[in-house]
Amino acid sequence: MSALRYTTFGKSGYKVSSLGFGAMNLPSVPLDQAREALNYALDHGINYIDTAAAYRNSEEIIGECISHRRQEYFLATKTNARDYETAKSEIERSLVRMKTDHVDLLQLHYVNYVHEFKKIMGEGGAYEAALEAQREGKVRFIGISGHRPDLLVKWIAKGQFSQVLFHLNLAQPFALDELIPTMTEMDMMKVAMKPLSGGFIQPVEQAIRYPYSQDVHVTISGMVSVKEVQENLAAQEQAVGSEERQELEMLARELGQHDCRRCNYCKCPLEVAIPDVMISSRFREKFGLLPKGSGFFERQKERIMGCADYEPCKEKPLCEEKCPYHLPMQQVVQKAASFYSA
Ligand code: SF4
Ligand code: SF4
Q1: How close is the Cα of 260 to the center of ligand 2, in Å?
Q2: Which of 77, 292, 293, 309 has a 20 to 30 A CA-CA distance from 169?
Q3: Are 305 and 243 contained in the same domain?
Q4: Per-residue pLDDT reduced to its tens digit, 305-322
């Protein structure tokens, strides 16, 4: 028996489970483990599977492990292509790889720049291929994913998309400002991703319960084992009451003060992974990080420590010139460096 919540998924009429299976990391584990995790998830009420053409052989794993249960889940994939021809061939390839004649949702993947959006939507763009596939019954709905909630709000205004996939986690509450309320008004499919910010942040239960407490239909959590599916299911066992919701919202406001949207506009010549530093530094100080997050800071140690002495950034930090939100990245990176010796 599942304790998940089921709500009507935008205009699709589908009753979608509040937890979705993020299949991005399945290529990193043995096939039998992936098979067990996917089937366990379906057996326990998860009915939304999210993958992408770009996630190595994730689509093939889905085809191999659960295509015989195709009617039991809403299947969402993505194309990174910006032009018609590439998108068309990627859609065809996704169907073959997942051994199905249609996907329920095709998302235009990782759209963060205005010029890319224009290319996708213009003549000969990927959106044309998505529409064509929809007419042919190969794609039921078209959505979009990106890391700029303020741009996504504008891009959905014409009603060309049925769904948006956005970040919503304790470290990134920004979709709540405008994007989610607008999508609710438009009766769109609201899908939150990365509740653990890519496996970095804890406490895990609170991190999963935060997007669950908000006005979204489904939260995709990346899972690779039965144990992880069980942990995610357990975190959604009880409904969230108003007091807990307020506590989670306060925590998210505090931990989201860095304001980084993970748009990746910034590039560091020392290859400091700035968005990860921005987003997880407060967690690092307050709660500590999950092993993946701690491992990241260990691997980045030299680069992060090097920021303070990097001559070309002394007068004007090169990264900060690129940030559309004018954030003080140099200061945050240098503070993160001081944490190594703390
Ligand atoms: S200020 Fe630091 S983080 Fe920013 S570009 Fe320069 S070296 Fe990289
Ligand atoms: S620091 Fe600014 S430019 Fe870099 S990812 Fe975050 S929001 Fe984007």
Answers
A1: 5
A2: 77
A3: no
A4: 999 999 999 999 999 999
Distance 80 CA to ligand 1 centre (A): 28
Query: What is the CA angle 118-120-124, rounded to 5?
Result: 105
Mutation test residue for ligand 2: of 266, 272, 319, the one with most atoms within 8 Å of CB: 266
Ligand number, closest to the Cα atom of 328: 2
* 191, two tokens: 């899908």
Q: Quick check: CB of 265 below 6 Å from ligand 2?
A: yes
Q: For a pocket test of ligand 1, which of 281, 303, 307 has the largest count of ligand atoms closer than 8 A to its C-beta?
A: 307
Tokens of 195: 């509740």
Q: Which domain holds residue 138?
A: 6-249
243 lies in the same domain as 128: yes
Cα-only R_g, the chain = 20
Instruction: Give the domain-ending residue among 249, 284, 316.
Output: 249
Residue 262, ligand 2, Cβ within 6 A: yes
Residue 265 domain-assigned (yes or no): no
> Residues 313-322, buried b or exposed e (16+ Cβ, 10 A)?
beeebbbbee
Q: Is the distance from CB of 15 to CB of 8 less than 8 angstroms?
A: yes
The number of the ligand nearest the C-alpha atom of 318 reads 1
**Token reading at 36:** 């067990």
> Which tens digit of pLDDT belongs to each residue from 82-135?
999 999 999 999 999 999 999 999 999 999 999 999 999 999 999 999 999 999
